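Changelog note: in this version the structure field was regenerated for every chain. One regenerated record is shown below for reference.
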Amino acid sequence: MDDISPEMADAAARHIKGATIAWGAGQCYDFDQPNPEIITIEDVAYALAYTVRWRGQARANGRRVFYGVGQHVVFGTEEMLAAGHSRADALAFLFHEPDEIVLPDFPGPAKNCVPGFRAFAKRQGVALLDRFGVRIPNPDLVKAWDMRMMVTEKRDLMPGHEGDRFHSSDRKTIMEAEFPPFERRIFPYAHPDQAAVRFLHLWQQLRPAA
């Protein structure tokens, strides 16, 4: 044990004693006292790219595929820019899952079953937004866009879950009527790194002025 540096011993102690997880470059992220300064934008890109959505149940062309949060935020951001929304709103969508940088993609319907989880996750998310100077100028737009992403993902990646209640006139699901899917179809990236690279490109395009 004598050859362990004081720095490494301190990091190990914090991991054992506190609500921390190992992070890059020998650092630990602390959930009790968020320290987002240790997190780089590259960390963000790869954390989201490798965080799976739909609990690994996505399918395309009859086979299981990996579809991550990184591609989710990238696709929605691209659609927001294509629709003519502001750079600030597009950046807000790119960062609209900030707690999932340090936490998994926790199923929304289960969050209310875990007392205190929403407040806990929000605390992490706020810390990450502050870390990168990101603001959410129009939360309603981001929420609506997120719902449209969900409908689009169900159409393209979750066969059999497109919806079970229809309007008699146009055969659209109730959800589709209020939050129409995007015309462009989702094709999962061949590798999660592609989502990370695209995320970083969009960040350079949309990032707040220094």
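Spot check on this record: Confidence is low (pLDDT under 50) at residues 164-168. The chain has two domains: 1-33, 42-206.
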